[in-house]
Amino acid sequence: MExxxxxxxxxxxxxxxxxxKPVLAASSGSRVLVPPSLRAGDVIGLTSPxxxxxxxxxxxxxxxxxxxxxxxxYGEALGRRDGSMGGSDAERAADLQRMIEDPGVRAILCARGxxxxxxxxxxxxxxxxxxxxxxxxxxxxxxxxxxxxxRQARIASIHAKMCNSFPADWAxxxxxxxxxxxxxxxxxxxxxxVIACPPHPSDRTGVAEGPLVGGNLSVIHTCMGTRSExxxxxxxxxxxxxxxxxxxxxxxLTNLQRxxxxxxxxxxxxxxxxxxxxxxxxxxxxxxxxxxxAEKVGGAGFPICFGFPVGHQRDNYALVHGxxxxxxxxDDGTSLGAID
Length: 340
Fold this sequence. Notes:
By secondary structure, the protein is α/β, with parallel strands linked by helices. The chain is 23% helix and 25% strand. It has 2 domains: 23-188, Rossmann fold; 193-338, 3-Layer(bba) Sandwich (Glucose Oxidase, domain 1). Helix 7 (246-258) runs parallel beside helix 8 (289-297). The relative contact order is 0.17.
């Protein structure tokens, strides 16, 4: 049985309200600008600021996006290649900058993750998004872009699947795959949504409210000490990762702890840590994820949930990074939803 369930329309937001203008949502020490809801006919731009992907490989996503009533604009660098990356640093940065500045593009969907976003962040000017906010969508390596938008401009963005995660045949796709893709549409159109999962033995119960920030732990770790460093003050932090050794996960969590990033949290959401690498016999780290987290947060009073449906997995739901959320961890399970 799937550990996650997707609960729609539970009333955490005023039912069915669509915002026509940017929404200013409260944050720690500043105001977060939430892009306006997309409407039928609005254009979503496709670009790949990280890894390479061909134009053919985005067609499944294009078909679904158009079925939602949105238009599609291909980035000029889409399909270009520089090693494993989707074009040179200059090409990828220029393509993303054009979409940031183009008033005809109302959202930007990153085509895939991989590697490359941190190489171009300091080439970007994100200030135009304060004047004309638009959604930026992606996860994994795109975490660096979410953190940069949050740190530099307090712009909300969408942590979600990308073009390479859309099913080739929508009609035969698994329900969980469809549901996670549809959660992107719901985030783009400000639909009231709560994401829920069953209880985990290591959960710490409680209720918290604050801006939701985080993403891929490795990328968060990489951005420490830079202009894109994560700001967790008064926030609900969510984490996920893939393909790491247990000791490496612990090292990155320790770095967050030593940097004070866990000191002023309101809540912690632990998503999927998939594909954990096998250790050499006799050289095992000897701690599971739950124990690592417990060691880092100690007796902190904020709620913590494990096994949340976000990460490199099928049940990877869209989360609005930077927007204020309510986290409720109880003996019956966990729910997380935007509240303004």
